[in-house]
Amino acid sequence: MNRFFMRYQKAIIWTVVVGFLLGGIGLFTFQRFSPPPRGSAEEVVLVVEGKKFSRQNVQDAYDNLIQYYTQLYQAFGQDFTQNLQGTDGAFNRHTYRASATEGLIRQTLIRKEARALHVSVPKAELNQSVEERYQRTLEQFGGDEKALESYLSAQGLTLADYRRQLRASQEYQLLEEAVHKQVVGPIEPTDEELLTYYQEHQDRYQSQPERIRIAYIEVSDPELSDQHLAQAPDADFAALAKEYSEDEATKDKGGETDWFSRGGSGLPQEVEKAAFELDQGQV
Question: Residues with Cβ < 8 Å from 252, sequence gap 6 or more?
């Protein structure tokens, strides 16, 4: 046995070494090319024309869309976050996430079509479009770039970040317009066609119903109700609700409800009607 080992010692050693190397390569290959774990940010959740999008890519698209609407509403002095609250908010978040995903799909297809048609955006045209859009943004801040920087900082962005995002957005918008023009050509609908389209799609142009949120104290004793009503204007309403309200769903929240529209509060009709007639802060 010893003579056999001594005779073939080199061959045996090299066989062992090669075996270890191949095993290591196999292990590395398995680890390197195994897919990300399910539910992780790196997991591929969308594939469009061979282009893969991870869960994080979709989340980023959703976050950007929410940020866009938040800024848009703020420009008109409104609070967009109310659209994300309560039961309606859960549905809206689902809708916005679907819209963000559709945006990724659309962008991928548009860019693929642009490459096929050899369509691109001239640099000079892009620069002009970006500058015009930037100046319109500055006008909303009285032309004060420092005020814009301060606003962006509150959003976690720098001016350079905003300019990069603006350029990317304008580049895609111009590219989409160029592809559309190349494929469809100019379209000039008549007044009659525009009117017909509007009449057939009026639901798309209706404003959202009025929504409010109230705080209330529910008690079954009329005498106690009158007593609390008299105290409410000068007292801590939230404290009163927490101590005396019989509504378990709202008492620990200071009596506050979720946002609701007419007919969607779940409150007695006369209470809901009175709520919509109150001014903000009125008891």
Answer: 242
Quickly list DSSP for 133-158. Answer: HHHHHHHTTTT-HHHHHHHHHHTT--
pLDDT at 105: 93
- Evaluate if pTM is beyond 0.70: no
- The CA distance from 101 to 109, in Å, is 13
Confirm or reject CATH 3.30.1330.60 for domain 44-184, answering yes or no: no
Triad 120, 55, 28: Cα angle to 5°: 100
- Whether the per-residue pLDDT at 13 is higher than 90: the answer is no
Taking the C-alpha atoms of residue 219 and residue 13, their distance in angstroms, rounded to an integer, is 88
* Tokens found for residue 83: 């659209």
Q: pLDDT of 228-254, one tens digit each? A: 666 666 667 777 777 777 778 787 887
